[in-house]
Design goal:
Elements: E1 13-21, E2 26-34, E3 47-50, H1 58-61, H2 70-76, E4 81-84, H3 103-120, E5 125-129, H4 133-142, E6 149-153, H5 169-173, H6 197-203, H7 215-221, H8 227-233, H9 246-249, E7 254-258, H10 267-276, E8 280-283, H11 302-315
Parallel strand pairs: 3-4, 3-5, 5-6, 6-7, 7-8
Antiparallel strand pairs: 1-2, 2-4
Length: 318
């Protein structure tokens, strides 16, 4: 493999925080950067990291078993890294409407940060995991000058690619093991959604490369989720966030990267997302990398996957 853009991993990092987002839905953001980094250096585009549903930005900061997370690793490559807590998640304030928060509302909050980074630094790479995928596609479509590239890590598909499922809990329950539909689940909209250890082990901690010895630490990091956002993930009642102009998303470099043991992200589904936008698709077994599931940023080969992403970004001049 070619070398990564920067191999100096000894430089000190600065770590501060800021609040961004909208007045209605502020977001807390960790910012990491190398103290000796050259602003806007070639191969050092900033990265905005968006976590997935039921998680917080902590999944990018470290791993449950204490290894270095993607955020500090990418910062050591000379990039300024912004790690977001979605509205109502982690250290971002939770409003009374949390159970009703939509992907579009959350994307509006992310847009403020992305535009701020583009204005103050440079247009960032948006890294989106799982349910933040539709938000990233929307940001690229609607805020074209503020998004330099998108890296989708087992990313959710836009509503364009999802069949509309009935707004009926009994019918959804009958489909709950259908991997072609993403193993849908129905969430009543009157309260946030909670998941337990069995759910986590089935969908997020099922792969051999998950740090199983640290499962309890991981489980403590899982948070409640917006019921509306969960229903949107499966396009229940046609609610999923759609992209009206896919060609606008494809105006920039785009990568989708997926592991083979992710029950909600079979190859055919994630490859279709990359194809919709004219992006590149990286299926880890094609590179001789096996055993990965959904949580690529915390699995035992997480830094190997980070290197793959870094090499791809460098090849794009970012």
């Amino acid at each position: 493999m070619p070398p990564i853009c920067s191999t100096d991993l000894t430089s000190a990092l600065s770590h501060d925080c800021l609040f961004s987002g909208t007045d209605a839905h502020p977001i807390y953001v960790d910012r990491l950067r190398r103290t000796d980094a050259v602003p806007n250096a070639p191969g050092a585009a900033p990265i905005v990291m968006l976590h997935g549903a039921f998680h917080t930005g902590a999944c990018y900061l470290t791993t449950p078993d204490g290894r270095e997370g993607w955020a500090p690793w990418f910062a050591r490559q000379g990039r300024t890294v912004y790690v977001v807590d979605w509205p109502g998640h982690g250290r971002s304030p939770r409003r009374d409407d949390f159970a009703q928060l939509s992907g579009r509302t959350m994307a509006d909050a992310m847009a403020v940060l992305v535009q701020q980074v583009a204005r103050d630094d440079a247009a960032p790479v948006v890294m989106a995991h799982s349910a933040s995928g539709p938000m990233a596609w929307w940001l690229a479509e609607q805020h074209r000058a503020s998004v330099a590239a998108v890296v989708g890590v087992a990313p959710g598909a836009p509503g364009n690619l999802l069949p509309e499922l009935p707004d009926d809990p009994l019918r959804i329950a009958a489909l709950s093991h259908d991997e072609s539909l993403g193993c849908p689940m129905y969430s009543p909209l009157d309260r946030p959604v909670q998941v337990g250890p069995e759910f986590m082990r089935s969908f997020w901690a099922n792969a051999p490369r998950f740090p199983h010895a640290a499962f309890q630490a991981y489980a403590r990091s899982v948070v409640a989720e917006s019921a509306r956002l969960v229903n949107e993930r499966f396009n229940i009642g046609g609610t999923a966030l759609r992209i009206e102009r896919p060609e606008r998303v494809g105006e920039r470099p785009l990568l989708v990267i997926t592991g083979p043991l992710d029950p909600r992200h079979p190859r055919v589904a994630d490859e279709a997302v990359a194809r919709l936008f004219g992006g590149e698709f990286m299926w880890l077994p094609d590179l001789g990398i096996d055993g990965n599931g959904h949580m690529l940023m915390i699995e035992d080969n997480s830094l190997l996957i980070a290197e793959l992403i870094q090499r791809w970004l460098c090849a794009q001049g970012l």
